[in-house]
Amino acid sequence: MTGFLFELSFWLAAPVWLLLIFMPGRRITERVAASPLTVVPVLLVYLAMAAPVFPELWSAVSSPDIDVFRDLTARANGAGAVWAQVIAWDLLLGQWMYREARRLGIHPWVMGPLLVLTILLSPIGLLVFLVLRAARQPRHATAGREVPLRS
After folding, report:
1. Fewer Cβ atoms within 10 A, N terminus or C terminus of the chain?
2. Whole-prediction pTM value?
3. DSSP assignment letter at 101
4. Could you list the residue range(s) of the whole structural domain that residue 33 is in?
């Protein structure tokens, strides 16, 4: 069951990522990207995996220690819970990056690969995006202008 939940956490987030990458500018994508509720199914998977190892999880986060954390992630439910948490936060991060890119007028052909990088290695994807964002920050009166939506 834990293996199924581990995989399910990704598959629950995948449709949102597909919209962000392959259907930018569509109304449905804009609505989905603006909603923090996209992560709720993934968080339910997180809770299902975290519950059986909650004492170990609490020890790992309330008094951080590398050995305690390693012991937590050595357990299938512990690793699965950490994975689901990463999937949920990465998804929220990707949604924010998508909305910021739309606001700044960053082309979808730039953002698509960057969002894929964020799915795979979110810290690197975020760093690249922050550099791109800083370079694209408007410095004149048209600041905040959004890219028009397509139907």
Report:
1. C
2. 0.86
3. H
4. 2-136
